[in-house]
Amino acid sequence: MSPAPILAAFRQALSEAWAGGAGALLPLGFFAGAAVLVPLGIGTEPGMLRAVGPGILWVSLALSSLVTLERIFQADVEDGALDLWLQAGAPVSAIAAAKTFAHWLTAGLPLALMSPVLALMFQAEAGADLLTGALIYGLGGLAFFFWGGVGAALSATVRRGGLLIALIALPLYVPTAIFGSMAMSGAAGGDSAPLFLAASTLFALALAPFAMAAALRLAAD
Amino acid sequence: MGMLSSFANPHRFLALSNWLAPLFYALAAMLIGWGLWQGLWMVPKDEYQGGDIMRVMFVHVPAAWLAMASYSAMAAASFIWFVWRHELADIAAKAIAPLGATWTALCLATGSVWGKPTWGTWWQWDDARMMSVLFLLFLFLGYMALRAAMDSRQKAARAGAILAMVGGLNVPLIKFSVDMFTSLHQDSSVITSEGPKMAAVYLWPLLMSGLGHSLLFGALVMTLMRAEIWTRRAARQRARLLAGA
Amino acid sequence: MDFLPHLDKNAAYIWACYGLGLVLIGGAVIGVVLKARAAKAALERMNADEKDAS
What we know:
The complex is a heterotrimer. Chain B is mainly α. Chain B has helices spanning 2-8, 10-42, 57-84, 87-119, 128-149, 153-185, 200-244. The longest helix of chain B has 45 residues, at 200-244. Chain B is globular and about 70 Å long. Residues 187-191 of chain B have low confidence and may be disordered. Classes of the chains: A mainly alpha, B mainly alpha, C mainly alpha.
């Protein structure tokens, strides 16, 4: 077993997601949408914005994952590359994980890194909390992408499978959304919430690649 | 193992369900009928629980039990199919899904209607059970949509099994997170379906209704499985006819 | 209508719930039984066709 196919899958997914610079527009688009459209839509009262800001960013993160995922495996099914990946001599679960990770790097991580800016625009207090916030969004986004990847792999052969991916992924996103927002709001369960978030992300990282692999084998048949 | 082979062998299953399903229907009708009679006429009203509205629990609570239990059954059947490839297990999972979705929808709808006079809203984000059941509905619908989107029966079985198992493993985590979420946000006292301690006069009709619903569910699953077995047989025969001709 | 139970102010909600139960569960029963009948009939038709063809 050589790591070469896994790295190749990672690099290919990264370049696909980046798409010559166009890939950067997606996270920026969601960021801009959240930062600009939401206050226009719901009003500018600072107390309210401070309360809803973290939640808005979680929603942006979830939506950005759903949008990119549709393409992560379907392109390979369409051009027959999937068969090559399955015969590449590396565990399919690792290849699937590499691709998913690459998409998170392009669409999920930038949002997490930009989250302090968004938080400030949503009237959060400036401080170290913003940095831990970025870490929380990073962890949560990873879970979103990996669970969403399971939906994407299962829907890889379905034309316009985006809605199906969303339907599959939504229940799986719930624990991350809950633990993540609890971690951000620092409510009564605030101390343990980041730990639960990390645990549920690890659970996703451990389980999702195998489900993706099974689904990809199915898609190739 | 002899009994278990009824579950692996479609012929044996058809023979078993031929008498078991009607029996379940009959028992269910009696139990549900008795539960209805008790719930609507006989059982005294409890002002602490909001008066007559708590009679709704005789529909809502069995529906909730079935929603949860049927998803577990679907996940278990999917796992059995995934490991042992008994076609009957896949047929069972496929049959459970729409029925589970129906009872889940009933639980949500009756919960909502119960909530309006009790809490003042049609939907209560504070209630952990309603939230969990809502996500359960999505899991059922996603399963059905995924199976329907696949090209062949085999692919539908495989895709469904993967999703049901992933969903099944996530259900405890979802419930746990929802419980945490609602325990933080609870502002008003939640009127639980069971009250501080349920008196026998309420408990018996509730349990009997629950049993009746379960038997009805089982009978319906068996009937749907029979329909699926016949449909697959007809399809195989059609294929043989076309191939042989 | 005296045989109907006498319910308090929330009667409409209570009837709505039992009505939902009747509609959804009754609908499920009807749907399932019809589907089983149709499948059985289709299989028998197929058997008859096969018999005629052979």
